[in-house]
Amino acid sequence: MAYYVYILASRRNGALYIGMTNHLLRRVHEHKQGLVAGFTQKYKISNLVYVDVFDSAYAAITREKQLKAWNRAWKIALIQQSNPYWNDLYGQFV
């Protein structure tokens, strides 16, 4: 089973959300449809801009916590390294 750490953005350089799941398509779909109450729903954060894949839940949780502790500039640099135009990557996984 694969585990995913993902970053969602409201827009380029907009609000960011970091999460972890074992079913990336379902989870991002829930964010896109506004089914996840709270921060992502309130700020309309639904563009998948970064994904890491792991073989273990422990590794994914560790990475999620690491990224959440990073400052905003590091998070933006990480996104821009692999996705310089902040494209919504959701379509690549459908």
UniProtKB/TrEMBL annotation:
InterPro entries the UniProt entry points to: GIY-YIG_endonuc, GIY-YIG_endonuc_sf, UPF0213_domain
Annotated PROSITE patterns: GIY_YIG
Domain GIY-YIG residues, every copy: 1-77
Protein origin, superkingdom: Bacteria
SUPFAM superfamilies: GIY-YIG endonuclease
Homology family: Belongs to the UPF0213 family.
Protein name (Swiss-Prot/TrEMBL): Excinuclease ABC subunit C
Organism this protein belongs to: Herbaspirillum robiniae
Upper lineage: Bacteria, Pseudomonadati, Pseudomonadota, Betaproteobacteria, Burkholderiales
